[in-house]
Amino acid sequence: MSWTSFIETAPAAGHAVQVYDDVSELARSFAAFVAAGFRDGDPAIAIATADHREAFAGELVQRGWDPAELERKGLLASADAEELLDRFMDGETPSAERFEHVVGGLVDEVSARHPGRTIRAFGEMVDVLWRRGQQEAATALEELWNELARTRSFALLCGYHLDIFEPDVQRDALPEVFRTHSHTRAVEEPSRLAAAVDQALSEVVGPARAAWIYLDVAEHVPHGSLPRAQAVLSWLSTSGFPNAPAILERARMYYRLRAA
Fold it and tell me: 216 is in which domain, residue-wise?
């Protein structure tokens, strides 16, 4: 299933992740995800940080939805990510029992008001933990969400603020983040990333060497497991290729320039 299909259909137990650089990217994914459900009468849960809720509300308004009215109708339930985390964390580790009570209880409340509907849930508690340096706790929390999806009917969208042009992010963070999700999106515009990576490769190593890199990536990365450009960034960061830092830095520059 494609990313667009996940956003539109939100299959129960689907678990997607949007990696973002700017909060506006995350807001657009969030709004598209929940608005597709609102059109069909499906409820949503938004577990977001205080500084992101305003951006999310603004994006919903631009799409013709009044967040306050949605909450009054019971279609949108909101919670603060950091406050919710404090209720089920046991030191440096999320408590499975408390998570079931706190987050499972919130899902149950919304489900009781909308029987037979699949809830569209958004959560960035994992990102809060990741940015605190608690990566193991974030991964454990992702697994708790997956466990909860076995007994409740919801689709989940997560957000991670990561710089995909950093080699250590490609090498260490993204594989772990992607492992716990059924649908992944490393950038908002994959075609723009592909063009930026193409240009960076050609300029740093030349067209012939760039073609060799694409062939080697195709040989070592399972077909369809990652978009081509993301697979190249991952390969560059893990293969020890000597020009990797220069290519990633130039790809970052072109990706941002192409946005303008």
Answer: 190-259
